[in-house]
Amino acid sequence: MFEIKWLWQNLQGNRTRYILALCLSVIGSSLTIANPYLGQRIIDTFIAGDDARQNLIDQRGLLIALCLGMIGFSLLRTGLAYLTTMQYERSSQNTLYNVRIYLYNKIQGQDMEYYDHNRTGDLMTKMTGDLEMVRHSMAWIIKTIIESLTIFVAALIYFFSIDAVLTLWLLILAPPVFVVAFLFAKRVRPMYIDLRERLSQLNSTTQENIAANRVIKAFAREEFEIEKFTAKNANFSKANKTAALVWLDYFPYLETFAQAFNVILMIAGGYLVIKGRITFGEYAAFSSLIWAVSNPMRNIGIIINDIQRFFASLAKIVEIYYAKPGIVNEHRAVEKRRYDGNIRFDHVSFKYDGTTVLHDVSFSVQAGETIAIMGSTGSGKTTIVNLIPRFYDVSEGRVLIDGVDVRELELDELRGNIGIATQDVLLFSDTIDGNIAYGDPELPEEETVRYAELAAAHDFIRKMPDGYDTIVGERGVGLSGGQKQRIALARAMAVRRPILILDDTTSAVDLETETHIQQSLRSLDHDCTKIIIAQRVSTTAKADRILILDNGRIIEEGTHAELLAKRGYYYDVFMLQNEGLGRQVAVSG
Ligand SMILES: Nc1ncnc2c1ncn2[C@@H]1O[C@H](COP(=O)(O)OP(=O)(O)OP(=O)(O)O)[C@@H](O)[C@H]1O
């Protein structure tokens, strides 16, 4: 069975401990029949037997030994139960720890497409609730099944050794119990799969609402979001109740069967005692162990519920466990090289989920050149730069760096040659210093300051409560959009890579600051090819070349002067951004 194989595979390093736990479970459970057996001896010898009185006088030593035996076995079982639980807990916790690391690495190794198709809330549910369910299954469900089965089998063997006919009478209840259990399992399984899906939706909604907290407040949509959350919560709660209550449809039958064991024992057992076929002590042994047969039947519903939840959770974990990224790092043992920084797009087309967003794009950038990319929103600018570090792979054509297809380069090496400031700025919950030096933790403090100066960030950082030690990001001091962009720019420059990609990095800074940044970019003290996505002519004007993109196609290419002379898209944007002139153009058509 796949689930058991998977657990076994992941128990590596803890298998001995887990097997020990299973053995202790079997031993501890088998000992359950010891006390009923001793009880039977005491009753038959000292209470109900013909020579009971005499035996009390003659065999007092045996009575004491039997009583001490009962106490001893009780203590032994308690000690074993303690040891057993400890082994289950340790092995399951260790396994959970290892699997969590493995899954985390797996998630880290996924490409952008994976993140496009997986919700954060869902991934979080897999990494927390689902993993805990698997651990619970190892430490509790399997333990319960093993112990119930052992007690059941041990009790049956003991019963058969006393009287086969009475035991067979009791066993006539087993087939209907299993039929009911089977029907219940069949009905409840899809419910738990559905329940797991709803939990994921609930968590995703919660995560999105917390992340989008500012937008919700800005649009005063709290009530709408609360309603949305309440709907998901009600959905989950309803599914939870339905799954839990379905057990009640089967519970009366199983409970009746469980009670019927006692009735059969009383009628058939009483008859056999009267007939002298079994002794009163043997009847008492049956009576004190009948729970070992009826309880597993009673608990079968709880166990089936948990097993179905385990299946549903494991199916979700396995989605991460066996997920294979399309873009993988071969980890070839090469010494990381520093590229020159020549970039060439050779008839590149690209599709997102079957929709083509780049059509036959070709252009070249020489090492050290600065290229600006401009174009209407959604025209494919970010998509172009995403292909350079292989966040995505081309659908057709090739992207070459220093003449080599990026798909043939070692991924770590490739990305280690690119500094990038993405359009959505994300800062970590860390100091400003830690954020700037994120790509190079060894960066000396004076270098951090230097890059902050180049990114026009030093002045505002200096004025912050703890300067470069101020904590920013999710839990830290709030920063303006422009301030965040400047820290992200310093972070991208500080890694001193031969290719620097800036995706709309100065869109939120004022013109004066932008001029300072443009100046800094031109005077970087390391060789660097720059690709700058920008909407402002003031940013693109000094680039060696400007590409104009429209609908995934390059429609214009040239220097600032060449493109102005063309009087196309770039010219229009230039005129619009130079107030007054822009209006004249609009009026004159
Ligand atoms: N992860 C994605 N999955 C599917 N489609 C996407 C994805 N990212 C972008 N797109 C689509 O691809 C097209 C190009 O997007 P891209 O982000 O490259 O445009 P852009 O020119 O950078 O836009 P902007 O100036 O608004 O940032 C758009 O139509 C967009 O809807």
What's the SSE blueprint?
Blueprint: H1 2-10, H2 15-30, H3 34-47, H4 52-58, H5 60-108, H6 112-117, H7 120-162, H8 164-171, H9 174-211, H10 213-218, H11 222-274, H12 280-321, E1 343-352, E2 355-365, E3 370-375, H13 381-387, E4 396-401, E5 404-405, H14 411-415, E6 418-421, H15 432-436, H16 445-454, H17 458-462, H18 481-494, E7 499-503, H19 511-522, E8 529-533, H20 537-540, E9 545-550, E10 553-558, H21 560-566, H22 569-577, H23 581-588
Parallel strand pairs: 3-8, 3-9, 6-7, 7-8
Antiparallel strand pairs: 1-2, 1-4, 4-5, 9-10
Helix pairs in contact: 2-5, 2-7, 3-4, 3-5, 3-12, 5-7, 7-8, 7-9, 7-12, 9-11, 9-12, 11-12, 16-18, 21-22, 22-23
Bound molecules: adenosine-5'-triphosphate.
Adenosine-5'-triphosphate is lined by residues 116, 352-353, 357, 375, 377-383, 423.
Question: Summary?
Answer:
Keywords: ATP-binding, Cell membrane, Membrane, Nucleotide-binding, Transmembrane, Transmembrane helix, Transport. With 589 residues, the chain is an alpha/beta fold.
Number of strands: 10
- Percentage of residues assigned to helices: 55-70%
The CATH superfamily of the largest domain is identified as P-loop containing nucleotide triphosphate hydrolases
Bound molecules: adenosine-5'-triphosphate
Strands ordered across the widest β-sheet: 6-7-8-3-9-10
Number of domains: 2
Distance between the termini: 74 Å
Question: Which descriptor suits the 3D outline?
Answer: elongated
Question: Per CATH, which architecture of the largest domain?
Answer: 3-Layer(aba) Sandwich
CATH-derived topology of the largest domain: Rossmann fold
Largest sheet: 6 strands, mixed
**Count of DSSP helices?**
23
CATH level-1 class of the largest domain: Alpha Beta
Domain ABC transmembrane type-1: 19-309
GO cellular component, one term: plasma membrane
Membrane topology: Multi-pass membrane protein
Keywords: ATP-binding, Cell membrane, Membrane, Nucleotide-binding, Transmembrane, Transmembrane helix, Transport
